[in-house]
Amino acid sequence: MKDNKKEDMDKYIAEEMNIDRLAEELADKNNLFFLARYNETIVGYAKMRAIKKPDELKSNDPIELERIYVLNEWHDKKIGAALMDHCIAYAISEQHDVLWLGVWEHNNKAVNFYKRYGFEFFGSHIFQLGDDQQTDVLMKKKL
């Protein structure tokens, strides 16, 4: 993101988005990935998991939307909306009562996107991006 230092972003990607780390995530049965295609090109993905729950989240059976990413050049194609619709439908079909996520407090575009889907704030936590400790706001949507 343009507001982050390149060094912090590079360090985060090297540590958290490398091939070995992603292979571990794909092999973990607690993670669920949805891929978004435009024609034959993968242009985004979402990652969900139901094994983590913040203390301040009052819910019986929540599921986390840990990531929802769309390549920049595809943002105007409503790919993020399609992914979000699919994640919500999946969470409902599995009878989860809350869909929750963390988003950087300064990512206004994403916060507004989630608000349009009915997400509301319920807490915050620290997210380590390289050497930069950032505050993620936690948002939830009752299903």
How would you characterize this protein structure?
This protein is of the alpha+beta class. The chain has one domain (6-142): 3-Layer(aba) Sandwich (Aminopeptidase). It is built from four helices and six strands. The chain has a six-stranded mixed sheet, sandwiched between helices. The longest helix is centred in the middle third of the chain and has 15 residues, at 79-93. The radius of gyration is 15 Å and the shape is globular.
Mean pLDDT: 88
CATH homology superfamily: Gcn5-related N-acetyltransferase (GNAT)
**Portion of residues in helices?**
25-40%
CATH class: Alpha Beta
CATH architecture descriptor name: 3-Layer(aba) Sandwich
Our measurement of the CA-to-CA distance between the termini, rounded to an integer number of angstroms, reads 30 Å
Shape summary: globular
Characterize the biggest β-sheet.
Answer: 6 strands, mixed
Q: Tell me the number of strands.
A: 6
Order of helices and strands: HHEEEHEHEE
Put simply, the count of helices is: 4
Oligomer: single chain
Rounded Rg: 15 Å
Count structural domains: 1
CATH names the topology as: Aminopeptidase
The parts where pLDDT drops under 50 for at least 5 residues are none
Query: Which class of secondary structure composition applies to the elements?
Result: alpha+beta
Largest sheet strand order = 1-2-3-4-6-5
Strand content is 35-45%
